[in-house]
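Worked example (supplementary).
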Amino acid sequence: EAGVAQSPRYKIIEKRQSVAFWCNPISGHATLYWYQQILGQGPKLLIQFQNNGVVDDSQLPKDRFSAERLKGVDSTLKIQPAKLEDSAVYLCASSPNTGRKTQYFGPGTRLLVL
Amino acid sequence: DQQVKQNSPSLSVQEGRISILNCDYTNSMFDYFLWYKKYPAEGPTFLISISSIKDKNEDGRFTVFLNKSAKHLSLHIVPSQPGDSAVYFCAASEANNDMRFGAGTRLTVKP
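After joint prediction of all chains, the assembly is encoded as:
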């Protein structure tokens, strides 16, 4: 079974530029999550999708961050414009439809904003 | 708000000995707890979990203990191996599956 795929793996941009990250979850997983992990901290949930609907985006900075999950499969997370403090690893995770929803993570995208 | 705390940023143990990683939480509504392991440049990998109806769950060399009254859980690795060297994250969730993570503990197992 293929795991959660993310791209790109690394991205360096200047502040005020835009950036987008892509995630393909494990096949059949209805729930998809985006996390931000700042160095030295644990992952922090940004947004949670159930199929293509948003379940929780309470911690998403909506003035600059946006996310979508078209057709309930792949998802993109966008930052526009980026700030220095957005430098972090952005993790995508997915969980199955039934049972206790253990989350399975992708390798992450490391973003550096200069 | 730090609802899940891992107060030891690092731990070093000798190969073959026991590793004990600790985690404390403040939210009494948490009913499901997980440990994830993370190698550099990779995403966290699920290791072991425990429901609040249990106080122990074992999987090979890994055992998680839950003390609900103390709001404390721990991960025991016996015997520790050099390949166990990684960052370990404790996580907790309520029924709505909003998972909260600790800051992680870096485990180094010395040969």
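Two points are worth noting when inspecting this output. Chain B touches chain A through 24 residues (CB under 8 Å). Chain B has one domain: 4-110.
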